[in-house]
Amino acid sequence: MQVKHFKMRKVDLCLSSEGAEVILATSSDEKHPPENIIDGNPETFWTTTGMFPQEFIVCFHKRVRIERLVIRSYYVRTLKIEKSTSKEPVDFEPWIERDLVHTEGELQNEEIMAHDDHATYLRFIITSAFDHFAAIYSISAEGIAVSDLS
Fold first, then answer.
1. What is the pTM (predicted TM-score) of this model?
2. Which of 26, 27, 128, 142 could make a disulfide contact with 68, Cβ separation 3.0–4.6 Å?
3. Which helix (H) or strand (E) holds 137?
4. How far apart are alpha carbons 138 and 17 in whole angstroms?
């Protein structure tokens, strides 16, 4: 088996331009689709529709080492993050759970030091919100690509 190694450069692993993809979202609004989370545009967002919990899964298409996460959101009260190192989006394990603070008129900017954790997929679960709807503007995962999945 040949292992392809990537250049060791820190990047935002959650950008579609870096190969990330939202492979599942429990709700979708055509004006605010889940792809907005990883498009790199600070003005776009994904919005939930309906009851909680709501979730989405980001696939990196490679094994990555995450050092820091930044979640930009609005109206999210409780957020759980699970990770998987499998080749398929299975075997998720609990990783991080946060209660966020809401300030009217301001985006939530939650920074999490991830201590060099490895993942191929991240599942984000919004278990509760401050309103009937919540929005995720972006997920930023600073880190490096470690290896291909093949």
1. 0.91
2. 142
3. strand 135-148
4. 14
Q: Which residues, including other chains, have CB under 8 Å from residue 142's CB and lie 6 or more apart?
A: 10, 11, 12, 13, 66, 67, 68, 69, 70
SS3 43: coil
DSSP string, 46-67: EE--SSS-EEEEEEEEEEEEEE
The distance of Cα 33 from the centroid of its chain, to the nearest Å, equals 14
Per-residue pLDDT reduced to its tens digit, 25-47: 999 899 999 999 999 999 999 99
Length of the chain: 150
Contact 40, 110 (CB under 8 A): no
pLDDT digits (tens, 9 = 90+) for 47-56: 998 799 999 9
